[in-house]
Amino acid sequence: MNAEEFLDTINKKENHTAVEDMQNVMNIISNVKQQGDAALKSYTKDFDRVDIENFKVPEKILDDSLNSLSGEERQALAHITGRIKEYQESIKYSDIDNDEFKYVYRPLEKVGIYIPGGTALYPSSVLMTVVPALIAGVKEIHVVTPTFNTNNMTFGALRILGVDNVYTVGGAQAVAALAYGTETIPKVDKIVGPGNKFVALAKKLVFGDVGIDMIAGPSEILLYVDDTADPAHIAYDIFAQAEHDVNARTFLLSESTDTIDRVDKEIERLIESLDRKEIVKESLQNNHYKIADTRERLIKIINEISPEHVSIQHQDSAEIISDIHYAGAVFEGTYSPEAAGDYAAGPSHVLPTDGTGRFSHGLNVNDFLTSHAVINLKKETFDEIAEDAKLLAAKEGLSAHYESLNIRTE
Amino acid sequence: MNAEEFLDTINKKENHTAVEDMQNVMNIISNVKQQGDAALKSYTKDFDRVDIENFKVPEKILDDSLNSLSGEERQALAHITGRIKEYQESIKYSDIDNDEFKYVYRPLEKVGIYIPGGTALYPSSVLMTVVPALIAGVKEIHVVTPTFNTNNMTFGALRILGVDNVYTVGGAQAVAALAYGTETIPKVDKIVGPGNKFVALAKKLVFGDVGIDMIAGPSEILLYVDDTADPAHIAYDIFAQAEHDVNARTFLLSESTDTIDRVDKEIERLIESLDRKEIVKESLQNNHYKIADTRERLIKIINEISPEHVSIQHQDSAEIISDIHYAGAVFEGTYSPEAAGDYAAGPSHVLPTDGTGRFSHGLNVNDFLTSHAVINLKKETFDEIAEDAKLLAAKEGLSAHYESLNIRTE
């Protein structure tokens, strides 16, 4: 399809949150608020089919998990941790001191991090969320994860990073516990990290009572390619997104239909060899878009839908990227496949989806800081602004504001 | 009271959003989504008692409003605008370029700004929200305000700043219109600005579909003083907060009960002379707290409740401020009364309230930017990380991720 047809199609596919889901999540939050740990136990039994006596993972289990890692695994985690640290330090904000105005950044005190679990392990999500918090200087990190095996790489990674407060609880109930506190889990200031749609809904509902990073939907990639890209590379980049989830979205853009056809042939040739081919097939069936049009119109698409991942494998990549305003993250060239970003490049893989990159950004060290201005006016400056400020105060009918200024000019 | 008694008292006063209010706001949003302008007209008639044919303010009205301003008023607006610009430019983020990683900031495309109205005018809120958006480089600014008089300073200030898109609609319905669009008002990317509790609830409910700045509650100030502060100054600073609203909160902290008593006497002496004395009296009756304790415990209070405004008028102000981690904004010394910050100092007066400064910050130029990383790895770097990334991909059971990396190492 061309750019216009694509924008028509995508604008018609509106995401509607089922009212029933919203109501269920509201009930879960309300029950956790009122009954604390007892509600957590009951939901964990119902949803995860696990009987939990104590949600807090004992130190011994964290140690055992660490000890069960191979030397190669430990080294990989340490190496990637180092890369993430270096990147996050390079973008961390510093205090500003402009004489009468300071602007200061302070680490958050208590942060809750959601790490997905269930049947799979996501040690990469541990690194991509905990390391930025550590670089920010967060004092207390509390991790919730529906991970019920005793020896596992998620716990091992947490132990390596020095996180002691780990709780085996997931879903909306875990978000509610972090937002309002229970007997076991303390109330935190901000909750971050990826999760399923119930986690996302719960984050939306507790927002304002605590900070949250973003409300994430299914993952997505947009690939913008020409013939300098190897079609087999592109096929695997598409598969890597599609294997996450049948709802994952993949967009293949090119100025040439021939290029798209060549990728199509590789998809066809390689798809049967995939471990998760059923998920990939269903995902491609429902949520794969191929768009050929002029460069100008293709860039317009990128800025309009602001995809979570944008991969530009094109000889004019620098030029194209300079026109991209909105994206979760941009990956340039053959050697920056999105999978490298997922695991090891440096920036966090927790990124805004479904157009929300138009107003929000991927998780980073600065999301674990809060900031404020310190205003210290000299008498001369105060005298210079007092009359104007008094004029506005009078106009707004706030006479005590007026007097609070006026008494200092006497 | 002392610090401990205060923290007990304040922790017991929990804010509960009435379920009924939430339900009403959900209905308003849903009706605006479905019926657009027709719903706006109906709500404006019901809530504001105004019949509106066309929500968009004609250019002539904006011009007339500007022309109705006195020379002094124009000059005051221009002067303050200049100060806000200078401050916001000094804290604006710049792109980072670290070879394989760029981090880039882009202005938001479409922003909605809520300016309170009703019976009063708030030209100061126009400056404190629109100027940061302009410095960021926002392309389209759409202002909603329940301001129905034709010639007024709010419109005049908007005209001076070059804002053409002004709509006379307020409340939750205005937020819904900006979030989802109507025939007259376009959907925006982010909604900012102060408003009443229905505006705050609507912002919470549309969050995620659009960005929002914060969910603000009643205004509050914490004053930390010693005998170097003039008790009459402090009394007026307290009045200036209390005159906003019977729910406005004022906290007076000192290491000495004598100091607090001296301020009390001034409050008593001056309160009857205030224009808005009924509001001030009710506010002080219900929401004024006097706390005397050690410096350590007083600073603990500040960090725990993170007040919107913190005013330190104390001979050791620098030392005290260095221990303050969480606040909306900090005002230091005699010549930085909070009222100066409201109107003219430079930083925006749109600030987090009710403890939310522990995880969020006052509105500034950077809230009108979004950002993303651009990752461009060299082949050597890719080769250096590929094995570790493949190991994690395999561990997480994502074989297409593994292949997307592996095919590039061949």
TrEMBL record, chains A, B:
Q: Name one GO molecular function term.
A: histidinol dehydrogenase activity
Q: Which keywords belong to this entry?
A: Coiled coil, Oxidoreductase
- Could you confirm whether the keyword Protein transport appears in this record? no
A Pfam cross-reference name: Histidinol_dh
According to its UniProt record, this protein's enzyme class is: oxidoreductase
Question: Could you tell me which InterPro entries the record lists for this protein?
Answer: Ald_DH/histidinol_DH, Histidinol_DH_monofunct, Hstdl_DH
Residues spanning the membrane: none
Q: What does the record list as coiled-coil region(s)?
A: 253-287
- The EC designation for this entry is 1.1.1.23
Query: Which SUPFAM superfamilies is this protein grouped with?
Result: ALDH-like (SSF53720)
Please state which protein family the record places this protein in: Belongs to the histidinol dehydrogenase family.
Q: Which NCBIfam families does the record match to this protein? A: hisD
Which PANTHER family did the record assign?
Answer: HISTIDINE BIOSYNTHESIS TRIFUNCTIONAL PROTEIN, HISTIDINOL DEHYDROGENASE HDH
This one is known as: Histidinol dehydrogenase
State the organism of origin. Corticicoccus populi
Q: Which gene encodes it?
A: hisD
